[in-house]
Write a structure and sequence with these properties.
The structure is a single chain. By secondary structure, this protein is α/β, with parallel strands linked by helices. Helix content is 41%, strand content 12%. The chain contains 21 helices and 15 strands. Strand 12, helix 15 and strand 13 form a beta-alpha-beta unit.
Amino acid sequence: MTALRLIFSARILPLTISIACLAIFGLALLVMGFFHPVLLGFFLLFLFLSAVGVHDLVQSRHAVLRNYPISGHARYIMEDLRPKIRQYFFEGEKDGRPFPRDKRSLAYQRAKGQLDKRPFGTEYDVYEPRYEWISHSLAPTRISDHHFRVIVGGPDCAQPYSHSVLNISAMSFGSLSANAIRALNKGAKIGGFAHDTGEGGISPYHREYGGDLIWEIGSGYFGCRNDDGSFSPERFEKAAADPQVKMIEIKLSQGAKPGHGGVLPKAKITEEIAEIRGIPMDRDCVSPAGHPAFSTPLELMAFIVQLRKLSGGKPVGFKLCIGHAHEFLAVVKAMLATGITPDFIVVDGKEGGTGAAPSEYIDHIGMPLREGLTFVHNALTGAGLRDKIRLGASGMIISAFDIGRVMALGADWVNMARGFMFSIGCIQSQACHTDHCPVGVATQDEHRQRALVVPDKATRVAQFHAKTLEALAEVVAGAGLHHPSEFKLFHFHKRINHSQVTTFTHLYPPLRTGELLEGTSDVRFHIPWQIARAESFAPAH
């Protein structure tokens, strides 16, 4: 009796019905003949469902399927469809993460050259806390050229580079498809801006169209390493001599996973990847969390000098996400002690993107861009070094307002990754780590990346860059300025609560030039500056 109740219970009933229908259609086929197409179709359908149900009962990995054979699969189907249904049917204009729908739409419109204006008024509640705006001028300016640029190259640089204020952030071949790299670089060539290679090395797809490159060198030294993974000066010198390489960027850390290394299993190392990265195919490729070439701030300064000399005097700098305050201040003290300064520093915010990272890193490790950028800007100002070093910024930047805001906080230019991914068709499916990107951007599947047509997407990359800078020029002119570098903290306002507003000057108070050298009482710097030392990243006791 118990067994009878079980087979007719709601959770087992789909399997019971399938087996019963299998028997009925099997008998019908015996009577009517095995070549009756309708009966045969139903017989095969219920044979398949019965086999699935029996397998569900006996398998041991999924408790839901053991208790709910056949019908339990609906859970996994709905789980897969849930983000897609939410994105297309229930997501509001200001909803969606990491980028809300209205920001993605803005990138698509500008990339396609479509109308990017909106009617009727803002959808933001301007009296809600966290709302931000720029002060406008009663005497707006006229700006004839929106191609804003900045010269990167300190006193020891022999080949300064004229840098657009908006460039493509670091994304490696491997994380992105070959066609995505082609489209981005061709767009950079058309638009006259720079393309950061990412730490995966310079691939043939970076070189194909001749767009300006910023060569990012991570702890794996891909493209300039010896067989044991150490830095190879000879291989670096040969690669850096390429006139397409305009700047050298040492990657200390990135915002989405600071302090995290990586392993590329040997099973995934193709001949192409091995050639590009300069690695053997018979072993796992390890990217350590730290750089083998240096272990102290002073050694980092020496490494910068070495790369600058080997590259023929090209701008050399580093990228990092700020972690311990005293560690960056130790680097600043090493600059003061040696007289060596990088030509630039790129501050990557915690909110920056990645192809794949552990949840704890992607959500909770690393300093957000605004705090990290203002810290670096103030540290260099307080040490009297800011005028020698250019600052770049990256992390959740997509609109002209975003660019103006980070430039007010201290940046000389911005790098953008996901905005340019949207321009070549990314739909924020967040499948980058699965190799199943639906639009061919973040995949190595040859059939999937075929969907990305390079000439069309390259034009969109260039248009997105141009339209965004046009919008930036309008914002700059509206504020009564002539260049985005003129934005100051007092131009930006933030609502603290429903009745209180403040400027960025109060939210991110600046240090005076030389204040750290004179002795500061600023709580953000006082103790970290005291315990920082040029000889080690570890604090003084």
